[in-house]
Amino acid sequence: VPVPVLLAARGCSSAGERGSGRRERPSGQRFLQVQKAGSKGSVGLIRLQRPQALNALCEGLMAELRRALDAFEADAQVGAIVITGSDKAFAAGADIKEMQGKSFQQCYGGAFLAGWDRVATVRKPTIAAVNGYAVSVPVSLRALCRVPHARGRDSWRSPPAVPITPSPGAGGTQRLTRAVGKSLAMEMVLTGERISAAEAKAAGLVSKVFPVDKLLDAAISCAEKIASNSKLVVAMAKESVNAAFETTLAEGNRTEKRLFYATFATDDRKEGMTAFVEKRKANFTDS
Predict the structure, then answer these.
(1) Fewer CB within 10 A of the terminal residue: the chain, N end or C end?
(2) For residue 182, how far is the Cα from the chain centroid?
(3) DSSP sequence for 19-58
(4) Where is the chain membrane-spanning (predicted)?
(5) Which of 149, 148, 154 minimizes the C-alpha distance to 134?
């Protein structure tokens, strides 16, 4: 996937959170807190809430996450989605205790880890606001979030936990290699050593740095800015960037051209250009 928006910090304080959306815990939801954030409620905010396991990504949590993403995807008010963790950790990777007793037959026959790429297939931009530890990052949510830039500070994140598990199985080796190159990806995957946010920034996994008390505000602010644009055109732009990361240059150029032409069939393209010529703020209708 393209480099995601990743806001990392040593911990996360919710005191500075923006927006008036209240925390919600829908019936039957055990591992997440879901709400709308931002001044206009245009940001979908998902908090991982499994602190006793450092937000390890068990099947129950991932099932709830898929449902939350589906709901925000279908919500016309929401233009971007922020995923964050708890005070101590963003996510501790896949749940080792859950995997420990599984057999080959159970994994293969039950399509274990299937559906984990829902974060990557959401058409709306997703931002990973990483606070505290983010273990096995390439196989966790961070590697799946798809937005063109990233932020972070003072957060240690480790690669797939090779000393514990045989090998990453949720796309970690593929996505990380495309993001940072073969050499660094090989070192991270094979050693399991942690890297700092500064090192991640230098490697291209993180583009900016924020202190802990600015983390969530910055994530929501970025999401609000995205949501203020045409949701239709934003989805097209996201698809085009993803094509650059996942296909050949020739195929990526064809995708970009096709989507560019497609914008000329939208009202928002006309409104955006007209507003630019008239030197006024555009009024997008997502049509």
Answers:
(1) C
(2) 22
(3) B-PPPB--TT--SEEEEEEBTTS-EEEEEE--GGGTT-B-
(4) none
(5) 154
- The number of C-alpha atoms within 13 Å of 149 and in the hemisphere containing its C-beta is 9
CB 158 within 8 A of CB 132: no
Residue 222, classified by CB atoms within 10 Å of its CB into exposed (0-12), middle (13-18) or buried (19+), is buried
> 3-229 with 235-277: one CATH topology?
no
- CA–CA gap between residue 132 and residue 74 (Å, rounded): 30
d(CA 183, CA 187): 6
Q: Which amino acid is at 109?
A: G
Domain boundaries, the chain: 3-229, 235-277
Q: Which residue has the tokens 């630019």?
A: 276
What is the rounded CA–CA span in Å between residue 258 and residue 255?
A: 5
Please state which of the four CATH numbers 3.40.50.620, 3.40.109.10, 3.40.190.10, 3.90.226.10 is assigned to the domain occupying 3-229.
3.90.226.10
CATH code of domain 235-277:
1.10.12.10
Rg from Cα positions in the chain: 19
**Tens digits of per-residue pLDDT, 116-170?**
778 888 899 988 887 766 655 433 445 455 543 334 444 444 444 444 455 566 6
Give the bridge partners for 94, in sequence order: 57
Q: What is the per-residue DSSP string for 107-134?
A: HHHTTTTTTTTHHHH-SS-EEEEEESEE
